[in-house]
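I am still learning, so can you show me any protein sequence you like together with the matching C-alpha cells, please?
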Amino acid sequence: MRKYKTRQRLYRTFLLVLCVSVPLLGLLSWWDRNRGWVRPCHSQQDALSTDEVARIFDENAEASAHETKTGKVPLFKLAMFGMDSEADYWDLVRAYTQRLAIRPGESVFESGCGTGAFLQAVQQLYGTSVQPLRLAGIDFSRKALKVAKLALDHSSQGHDYRSRHSLLYGMVQNLTAVPSNMYDVVLSFSVFGYLPSELDAAQAAKEMLRVAKPGGRVFIGNVNDAAKLGYADCMGTQRSFFSKDFWFKFSAKHRSLIHTMDIVDGYDIWHKTMGYDMAARFRYSIYFQKQ
C-alpha cells in the first residue's frame, strides 16, 4: 500500500511539472519569436559604412590568426562571433541549403564569403572525396580571405581543396572579375543586412544571378525583414532592412533571368527556442532558380 501511494505521489508530481512546463515553454517560444531577448528597434538606423564593416571582420579574423596557422580554425565561431555551438552551425547550414539540392562535383560561389565557414560546411555536407565541390567566393575583408584560403586548404575528411577553390577580393555589388553563367549554385548568407541601400541590394542580387548558370540556384540568406523592424536588435551591425515586396518588384523587373522565386521566413527554416539562432524571428531568405 505504501509503495502504491508513493507511486501515486510521483505520478501526480510528474503531471504537475508537465502541466506547468509545457505552457511555460510555449510562452518562451512565443516570446523568443515575437519579441526576443533584445532591445527592440523602432526605426531603421543608418547602415555602417563599408570601412566599418570591413574593420569588424578584419578584427574578428585577426583574433584567430594564431589558430589559422595550424589549420584548425574554429570557423563557425568566426561566422557566428562565438555565439553558438559547432553542432548548431552545422544544423543551420544544412537547413538553409537543403532547398538548393547541391550535388557532388557542382560549382558553388559565395558572394560575401568572409572566413569561408559557410563554404567549408557546404563542402563537407555535399562534396565527396571522389567528387568534391568546386568552391569560389568574394569578400572585401582581406584578413577574412586570408583565413578562408588557409582553412579551405585543410579538411577533417581529407579532401584536397587546394586546386578546387578560388577566392577573390572585391565587393558583392561588382562581380566583374567573375564570368557570366559560371556556377551551379550562387549563395550569400547574412550579408545583405550590411548593404547600405536597396540599390546596392538589387545590384548584388543581379550580379549573383548573372554568374549563375542557366537553371542554376541562387540563395540570398538571412535578410532583415522591414515589416519586423520592431523585433530587431538596435545593437546589431546588420542595420539594413528590406521588405519582401522589394524582392517581388526585383523579380518582376528581372523576369528574363528568374524562373522561380521563393521567400521563406527564417523561423520556418531553422530556429531555437532559446539561444542565438541568427535572429530568425525577424529575417527571411530568398531562393531563386535562374531561367
User: Anything to note?
Assistant: Residues 1-34 form one domain. The chain has a mean pLDDT of 82. Residues 60 and 78 are 7 Å apart (CA to CA). The first strand starts at residue 107 and ends at 111.
